[in-house]
Amino acid sequence: MLVAPSILSADFGHLARDVAAICEGGCDLVHVDVMDGHFVPNLTIGPVVVEAVAQVATKPLDIHLMVENNTFFVDLFAPLKPEFISFHIEEEKHPHRLIQKIRALGIRPAITLNPHTSIEAIEFLIEEVDMVLLMSVNPGYGGQKFIPSVVEKAKRLKALIEKRNPKCLIEVDGGVNDENVKELEAAGVDVVVAGSFVYKHPDGIEKAISALK
Ligand SMILES: O=C(CO)[C@@H](O)[C@H](O)COP(=O)(O)O
C-alpha cells in the first residue's frame, strides 16, 4: 500500500518540520489539499505555501484540488511540478479537456469522486487518467469519520480499471486508519491518504505510516 499523508493535519506553525517528518517516516507521496472556500466550506493553501512545501519534500507532491475553477488552479500549481493533480468530477464541465491539459503540462492527471458520486460518472474518462481518488469523507476537513460504502465503490472501480486501464491507481482519502486499510487493500486500493492517523498517532509518524503499509 502506498501512503500519502495529508499535510492538512500538520502543525502549520512548523510546516517544514512536519513535511520533512513524513518524508523521513517513509511516505510515498505528500498529499496537499487545496480548498477555495467555494467548492468546499474551508480555505487552505495556495502556491506560495505549496512552493515552500515542495522545497522541503523529498517525495512527490499529490495535489488534490477542491475548488470551483480547476483550470485556474492547475495553471497556478503546474510550475511546482507535482506528480499528480486531481480535480473533482462534480465541479468540471469539460473533464476530458482538463485531463489533456494536465498531461500536456507533464503532470499525471487524476480525477476525484465525492462519496455520493457513482463511478459511472467517469466510465468514459478512465482510459485518460493515471489515478482515481475516491473520497471516503465529505471533502473540506480532516478528522472526519470514514464512510464505509467506499469499499464497495472501490471494488466496482477496480473491476472497471482492470478492463479499461489496468495501470490506473485507486486512491482513497478520508478517515483512513490501520483497521479500514485492510478492507481497502482487499478491495484493490493502491494509495491511501491519511491526515490525522499519521500526524496524531501516539507512537509517532513513522510507526503510523508503517502500520498503514
Ligand atoms: O481531503 C481531505 C478532506 O477534504 C483529506 O485529505 C483529509 O484531510 C484527510 O484527513 P483525515 O480524514 O485522514 O484526518
TrEMBL record:
Keywords from the UniProt entry: Carbohydrate metabolism, Isomerase, Metal-binding
Residues annotated for a divalent metal cation binding in this entry: 31, 33, 64, 173
Assigned EC number: 5.1.3.1
Pathway(s) the chain acts in: Carbohydrate degradation
Transmembrane recorded as keyword: no
Reactions catalysed according to its record: D-ribulose 5-phosphate = D-xylulose 5-phosphate
Entry GO MF terms: D-ribulose-phosphate 3-epimerase activity
InterPro entries linked: Aldolase_TIM, Ribul_P_3_epim, Ribul_P_3_epim-like, RibuloseP-bd_barrel
Domain of life (superkingdom): Bacteria
Co-factor note (free text): Binds 1 divalent metal cation per subunit.
Residues annotated as the enzyme's active site: 33 (proton acceptor), 173 (proton donor)
Residues reported to bind substrate: 6, 64, 140-143, 173-175, 195-196
Cofactor annotation: Zn(2+); Co(2+); Fe(2+); Mn(2+)
Purpose: Catalyzes the reversible epimerization of D-ribulose 5-phosphate to D-xylulose 5-phosphate.
Family: Belongs to the ribulose-phosphate 3-epimerase family.
UniProt-recorded name of the protein: Ribulose-phosphate 3-epimerase
Organism: Sulfurovum xiamenensis
Gene expressing this chain: rpe
